[in-house]
Amino acid sequence: MESIKVGMLGLGTVGGGVLKIMQEHQEKISAITGRRLEITKIAVRHVAAHPEVAELGIELTDDVNAVLNDPDIQIVVEVMGGVDPTKDYIIQALKNGKHVVTANKDLIAQRGSELVKIAQANHSDLFYEASVAGGIPILRTIVNSFAADQIEDVKGIVNGTTNYILTQMVAKGMTYEAALKSAQELGFAESDPTNDVKGIDAAYKMIILTQFAYGTNVKLSDLSVEGIDKIDAVDIQQAKSMGYTVKLVGESAEINDHLAVSVAPVLVPNDHPLATIQNENNAVLVKGAAVGTTMFYGPGAGKMPTANSVVSDIIATTKNIVLGTSGNTFNGYRQKAALAKPSEIFSSYYIAVKMPDIPGQLLKLTQILTEAQTSVSQVVQTETDGKEARVVAITHNISLAQLHTIIDQIDQEASIELKASYKVLEAQK
Ligand SMILES: NC(=O)C1=CN([C@@H]2O[C@H](COP(=O)(O)OP(=O)(O)OC[C@H]3O[C@@H](n4cnc5c(N)ncnc54)[C@H](OP(=O)(O)O)[C@@H]3O)[C@@H](O)[C@H]2O)C=CC1
Ligand SMILES: N[C@@H](CC=O)C(=O)O
C-alpha cells in the first residue's frame, strides 16, 4: 500500500492524542483511505521533553523548517497554537504544496479567509474541524447537512474550560480559582487561559461558526464579548434559586438581514437543553428555517476528543489526495452583513443592584425601569444586612437599547449600584 507522510507542529495535549490515535488505529485508517499514513517528523520547542517519540521511529526536531520544507511530507498537522509565527508556518506549508490540518481557532478566526485563499491558490486542503467545539463535528455538519437550509440562529456552549469551571462552582461549590486550576491540569484550558475565561476563545469559535452559518466574515470587534471572570458567586446562587443555570453562551443570529454575534454569561432556564451541559462538554443549537432547531452535543475540549476531530480531517485530506482533488472547508461567500442595532436585539434580562435598605429606595429602581418602558416578571430582595439590600429584577423582553438606557440611569443614580446584568434565555419550545 502506498504511504502518505505526515509532519506535525506541536506535541502537547492535542498533538499527543493525534499521535496516539494515528498509532492505534492505523489499520482502520488505511482500510478507509487506501493509504498508509505515517507520521515521520514532529517539531516541538523542547525535544528533550518527549523521549517516547524516538522509540516510535519518528524524527523529533526543534526546527519547524525540517517539517515545512520536507519534500516527502504531504500533510502538515498544526497543533502548536498561537497566531504568530504559526500563520507564517501554515502559509509556508501551503506554498510548499502541503495540505494543512489545524485545531487553531485563534488563527482561523483572525486570518482564516486569507489562509483559505492561499490554500485554494495552491490546490491544497486547509481543514480545521477541531477549532470549534473540540470533539463535535459541527463545521462539517453545517457545510454538508445545512447546505440546503437557511440558518437563522446558532447558539451554544463552545468553551469547555468555562463550562467546566461553572459546573464545578455550582455542583461542588468549588472556588473559581480551584476550578480553573483543575481545568488547566486536565488539558482543557489554553496554555494562557485568559482567552478562555474572558470569553475570547468562545468568540473566536463564534466567528468561525458565523462564517459557516451565514457565509459572512466578522471580526472580534464586531462581537459583544464578556467572559466569566467577573461573575459573582452570589449571582450564580441567586440564578439557581430562581430556576436558572448560569452558562457562558455564544450566539450568532440573523435579524432582518443583520447579524448579532455575542458571547456572555447567560441565565439558562433549568429545563432548557443547554442547562444540562456539564463540565467540559459543549453543545451547539443550530436553527434552520426548514429543519427547525437541532442540537449537537459532545466533549468540547481535551486530548482525545479534540485529536479525534484532527484525525478525521487528516482522513478527509487523505481521501482528497487519493481522488486528486482539494476541498477547502469554506470561505465567506457573501458581502459583509451589517451588524444588528441594539434596538433590533431583544431579550429578557436579569438585573442585580445594591441599594440602601430604606423605604422608597425600591421605587427609584422601578421608576428607572418604567421610564425605559420596561416591565418585569420578578423583583426580589435577595439579601440585606439591615442597611444595604441586594435586589434582583427579571425583565420581560426588552431591546438591548432599553437595557443600555436602564444601565445609564442606574449609573446616574448615586444610591443604586449595578452589580450584574445578564441575558435570560427563552425557554426552548
Ligand atoms: N487542549 C484542547 O482541549 C484544545 C486545543 N485546541 C487547540 O489546539 C492547539 C494545541 O493546543 P494544546 O495541545 O492544548 O497545546 P499545548 O500547549 O499542550 O501544546 C503545544 C505544543 O506545541 C509546541 N510548540 C509551541 N510553540 C512552538 C514553536 N514555536 N515551535 C515548535 N513547537 C512549538 C509545544 O512544544 P513543547 O512540548 O516542547 O513545549 C507543545 O508540544 C491550540 O491551537 C489550541 O487552541 C483546540 C481544541 C481543544
Ligand atoms: N480551551 C478550549 C479548548 C478547546 O477549544 C476550551 O476550553 O474550549
UniProtKB/TrEMBL annotation:
Note one Pfam family from the annotation.
Answer: Homoserine_dh
Q: Which keywords appear in this protein's UniProt record, sorted alphabetically?
A: Amino-acid biosynthesis, Metal-binding, Methionine biosynthesis, NAD, NADP, Oxidoreductase, Sodium, Threonine biosynthesis
* Chain sites annotated for binding NADP(+): L9, G10, L11, G12, T13, V14, G15, G16
- Biological processes per GO annotation: methionine biosynthetic process; threonine biosynthetic process
Which pathway features in its UniProt record?
Amino-acid biosynthesis; L-threonine biosynthesis; L-threonine from L-aspartate: step 3/5; Amino-acid biosynthesis; L-methionine biosynthesis via de novo pathway; L-homoserine from L-aspartate: step 3/3
| Family annotation (Gene3D superfamilies) | 3.30.70.260, Dihydrodipicolinate Reductase, domain 2, NAD(P)-binding Rossmann-like Domain
One annotated GO molecular function: metal ion binding
Enzyme nomenclature, EC number:
1.1.1.3
Residues annotated for NADPH binding in this entry: K105
**InterPro entries with a match to the protein in the record:** ACT-like_dom_sf, ACT_dom, Asp/hSer_DH_NAD-bd, HDH, HDH_cat, HDH_CS, NAD(P)-bd_dom_sf
What is its cofactor? a metal cation
Active-site residues (renumbered): K205 (proton donor)
Where L-homoserine binds, per the record, is at E190
Domain annotation ACT: ranges:
350-423
Reactions it catalyzes: L-homoserine + NADP(+) = L-aspartate 4-semialdehyde + NADPH + H(+)
* Listed PANTHER family: HOMOSERINE DEHYDROGENASE
Q: Per the similarity annotation, which family is this?
A: Belongs to the homoserine dehydrogenase family.
What is this protein identified as? Answer: Homoserine dehydrogenase
UniProt source species = Agrilactobacillus composti DSM 18527 = JCM 14202
